[in-house]
Amino acid sequence: MPADAMEKVVNLCKRRGFVFPGSEIYGGLGASLDYGPLGVELKRNVKDAWWRAVVTGRDDVVGLDCAVIMHPRVWEASGHIAGFTDPLVDCKKCKQRFRADQIQTTVCPECGGELTEARQFNLMFKTFVGPMEDTAHVAYLRPETAQGMFVNFKNVVETARLKLPFGIAQTGRSFRNEITPGNFLFRTREFEQMELEFFVRPGDDDRWFDHWREERMRWYVELGIRAENLRERPHGADELAHYAKGCVDIEYRFPFGWSELEGIANRTDFDLKRHAEFSGRDLSYFDEEKRERFLPFVIEPAAGVDRSLLAFLVDAFDEEVVEGEARIVLRLHPRLAPYKAAVYPLLRKEGQPERARSIYDALRRHFAADYDQAGSIGRRYRRQDEVGTPFGITVDHETMRDGTVTLRERDSMRQVRLPEDRLIDELRTRIGNA
User: In whole angstroms, what is the distance from residue 263 CA to residue 243 CA?
Assistant: First the structure.
């Protein structure tokens, strides 16, 4: 990728309303970002695509939506209070802070000053529940969504009547007080996750671990990310989490280097065992057919919504010259594109705007769509190309005469005529087959 690809994507996001700096009118807040009108649609589409692939597209996974603030004992059991830390060093001269594992020297990379000894810094955001701010009322914003699914394991088994193997999935916000956030959407202190806890019989865990590795890699490719920009990176024995039997990261080749999109981990029975111990509740599973009781193992594919969205944006961003003019185009998969189609009247007279508006009103009952009548038709095409709209529909003289419209494809720029009453079916077919 070009060295300035990231800068161009960031500029496009601000200029066209995908992502804005958080609290911008007050000077901003580090690693705080707000999704604009187009960004929130793209983000929703990423989450919906994941939910379809992982939950509603299967018969062995159900969903949850758990509380952000949970009982503090949850985080004791999970090990987050004692062990969810990063090593931190301070510069004695300029007072900046750095993660010790990312500093290769003993001096400050910014000013050359002396660094302090490393100390462990807990990444969880602390808060208080109720009117008293004392240790008895301490709580935490969740640093991951996974634990809500573990503590609800028994509830789901009893109410959903599921048999192993089965999964519990959730999307939602998590919070981590990162020492060194950065790279736009890649690392922020407030972010969204898409996590699945897939419960299996011990002994079947290796097979399901491989299954979810393949499924999750295929998901990114099917939604348009080029396979050469993805890779698997197995964790070495020295970097495995204490609870993990195995872990593989799906990495994307960002402009700033290969970095993690998603981790697929074999968490064994660690989480259910710990929560059973700390809560005093029996979290085992009873297999009625084999008359056996045991703690299931868990395979966990855990992805970041924001990181995935950033990868889709970067991979889709393209620049080319068409007929002597620069063209920026986001080649987003149609299922992810914020708008599926845009409708244009060729002229702002002869009843064309009214006819185009009528078509637009009919389309948006089925798809997210846009209406644009400002400027030349070429300029309107370019505006929609750079936000990823896959199809353009132009109302012109022939439309007024015979009821046909021009359907333009974003990527190929090919145009075809078809009756306006076939538009919805045609778009549904093209989006579904993409």
Answer: 14
**CB contact at 8 A, 191 and 305:** yes
Q: What is the pLDDT of residue 1?
A: 67
Query: What is the rounded distance in angstroms from the CA atom of residue 391 to the CA atom of residue 335?
Result: 12
Domain match, 296 and 192 both: yes
Query: What DSSP string runs through 264-316?
Result: EEEEETHHHHHHHHHH-----EEETTTTEEEPPEEEEEEEEHHHHHHHHHHHH
Strand partners, 214: none
| Domain CATH number, residue 345 | 3.40.50.800
Q: How many alpha carbons fall within 13 Å on the CB side of residue 312?
A: 29
pLDDT, averaged per 10 consecutive residues of the chain (434 residues), comes to: 85 95 91 94 98 96 96 92 83 86 84 88 87 87 95 95 95 89 88 97 97 97 97 92 92 95 96 96 95 97 97 96 89 97 94 96 95 93 96 96 96 95 95 82
pLDDT digits (tens, 9 = 90+) for 125-180: 999 998 888 888 989 999 999 999 999 999 999 999 889 999 999 999 999 988 77
- Residue 259 and residue 401 in one domain: no
* Residue-range definition of the domain harbouring residue 220: 5-69+142-313
- What is the three-class DSSP state of 137? helix
β-pairing, 341-345 vs 369-371, is parallel
Peptide bond into 165 cis (omega under 30): yes
Measured between alpha carbons, how far is 333 from 283 in angstroms, rounded to an integer?
42
Measured CA to CA, the distance from residue 170 to residue 57 in angstroms comes to: 15
pLDDT given for residue 243 in this prediction: 86
Give the contacts of 220 (CB within 8 A, at least 6 positions apart).
230, 250, 252, 261, 308, 311
Check residue 433 and give its pLDDT: 77
Quote the DSSP letter at residue 117.
Answer: P
Q: Hey, is 34 helix, strand or coil? A: strand
Domain end (from 313, 328, 359): 313
**176 & 282 share domain:** yes
Cα–Cα nearest to 168, from 178, 160, 176: 160
